[in-house]
TrEMBL record, chain B:
Keywords: Coiled coil. InterPro entries: PspA_VIPP1 (IPR007157). This is PspA/IM30 family protein. Residues 232-264 are annotated as: Disordered. Residues 48-143 form a coiled coil. Belongs to the PspA/Vipp/IM30 family. Pfam families: PspA_IM30 (PF04012). The keyword Coiled coil applies. The keyword Ribonucleoprotein does not apply. Transmembrane segments: none annotated. Residues 232-258 have a biased composition (Low complexity).
Length: 92, 264
C-alpha cells in the first residue's frame, strides 16, 4: 500500500506490515483525542520511523494516489487535529 | 476505530472527489450523452427516410416504363392491323428491351423494400435503447442528487465530509461514466451495423441510386445484424437490458477499494 508522509513523499509498504503500523496509528489517534502532546510526538515519531524503515520510497516523478496519509514529522497535535476537522486538507 | 493515517487519506480523497465533482457534474454529462444518442437516432431515421425516398423514385420510374411498354404494345397492334409487320416488329422489340429494364428495376425495388424494413427495425431498436437510457439516466440523476443532499447534511453536522457519502459519490460518478460510455458504444455499434454511419459519408458526393447500390453491396453486414437481432429476440429481453445495466454491475468492484484500508 502506498503511504504518503506529508512534506517527505511516498513510500510503498507491504500489506504484511500493516498490523504493526495500525497499532501505532491507533495509539496516535487515541493520544490526539486525549490531548496527550508528549505521547503524540513520541508515537508519531515511532510511526514515521516504522513507515520509513518498512517501506520503499517511490521515485519523485511517480504518479500514484496515496492510500494512507501521515502528518509531517514536525506536525503538532493541534495542527493534526485541525486537519482532521473543519474543511480538511484542501480548502473548499 | 480508524487511525490518523486512514482518516487523513479519506479526507484527501473526499476533497479530491469534491474538486472533480465541481469540474464535471455527472448529471450534465448524462444529459449531454443523451443528446448525442438522440442525434444518432436522428441520423438513422434520416437513413430510413432516404431509402424510402429512393424506393418511391423507383416506383415512379417503374410506372413510367410500364406506361411506355403498354403504349408500344398498342402501337404494335395498330401497326399489325394496318399491315405494317415491320413496324409492329420494331415496336415489339423496343417493348422487349423496356420489359427487361422493368424487371431489373423490380428486383431493385424489392431489395430496397427489404432494406427499408431492416433499417426501420434498427431505428426502432435504437429508439428502445435510447428510451431505456433516458429512464436509467433519470434514476441515476435522482440518486446522485439524493447522495449530494446527504453529503450536505452530513457536512453541516460534522463539518467534514462523511466518509461513506463521499465513497458513494465516487461510485456514482464511476457508474455514470460507465453507463454513458456503454450507451455511446452501443449506439455507435448499432449505427455501424445498420449502415447508417456509412450513409452519412456517402450521401454528399453520390447520387441516390449509387448510394442505394452501395448500401445493397454492404447488405451482408445488415444480414448479420438481422441474425443477431433475431437471436436476441429469441433469447428474451434480458440480453438487451444488460447493455444498459451492465454499468451498475461493472462497478461492483469500486467500493472494494476503500475497504482495503479498513481496520479491524
Amino acid at each position: 500500500m502506498i503511504v504518503r508522509i506529508m512534506g517527505e513523499g511516498q513510500v510503498e509498504v507491504a500489506d504484511s506490515h500493516f498490523p504493526e503500523l495500525n497499532k501505532l496509528d491507533d495509539e496516535l489517534l487515541a493520544e490526539m483525542e486525549g490531548g496527550d502532546e508528549d505521547g503524540f510526538r513520541r508515537t508519531l515519531g515511532a510511526l514515521l520511523d516504522a513507515v520509513r524503515r518498512l517501506g520503499t520510497p517511490l521515485p519523485d516523478d511517480a504518479l500514484e494516489p496515496s492510500e494512507l496519509i501521515l502528518p509531517a514529522a514536525d506536525a503538532g497535535l493541534d495542527e493534526v487535529r485541525e486537519m482532521l476537522s473543519d474543511d480538511g486538507l484542501i480548502p473548499g | 476505530m480508524s487511525g490518523v493515517m486512514k482518516r487523513m487519506g479519506m479526507i484527501f480523497r473526499a476533497k479530491a472527489n469534491k474538486a472533480l465533482d465541481r469540474a464535471e457534474d455527472p448529471r450534465e454529462t448524462l444529459d449531454y450523452s443523451y443528446q448525442k444518442q438522440l442525434e444518432l437516432l436522428q441520423k438513422v431515421r434520416r437513413g430510413v427516410a432516404d431509402v424510402a425516398t429512393s424506393r418511391k423514385r423507383l416506383e415512379l420510374q417503374l410506372n413510367q416504363l410500364q406506361g411506355q411498354s403498354a403504349k408500344l404494345e398498342d402501337q404494335g397492334r395498330k401497326a399489325l392491323a394496318l399491315g405494317r409487320e415491320d413496324l409492329a416488329r420494331e415496336a415489339l422489340s423496343r417493348r422487349a428491351s423496356l420489359q427487361q429494364q422493368v424487371s431489373d428495376l423490380e428486383v431493385q425495388h424489392q431489395t430496397l423494400q427489404g432494406e427499408e424494413e431492416k433499417l426501420t427495425l434498427a431505428a426502432q431498436r435504437l429508439q428502445a435503447k435510447v428510451d431505456a437510457f433516458r429512464t436509467k439516466k433519470e434514476t441515476i440523476k435522482a440518486t446522485y442528487t439524493a447522495a449530494q443532499a446527504q453529503t450536505r447534511i452530513a457536512e453541516s453536522f460534522s463539518g467534514i465530509s462523511e466518509e461513506m457519502s463521499d465513497v458513494g459519490l465516487a461510485i456514482q460518478r464511476a457508474e455514470d461514466k460507465t453507463a454513458q460510455l456503454q450507451a455511446r458504444a452501443g449506439a455507435i455499434d448499432e449505427l455501424l451495423a445498420s449502415g447508417a454511419l456509412d450513409d452519412q459519408s456517402g450521401l454528399g458526393s453520390k447520387d441516390d441510386i449509387q448510394a442505394e447500390l452501395d448500401r445493397l453491396s454492404g447488405g451482408t453486414d445488415v444480414e448479420l445484424e438481422l441474425q443477431r437481432m433475431k437471436a436476441e429476440l429469441a433469447g428474451g429481453p434480458a440480453a438487451q437490458q444488460q447493455a444498459i445495466e451492465g454499468g451498475a454491475q461493472g462497478n461492483g468492484q469500486q467500493p472494494q477499494a476503500p475497504h482495503r484500508f479498513d481496520k479491524q
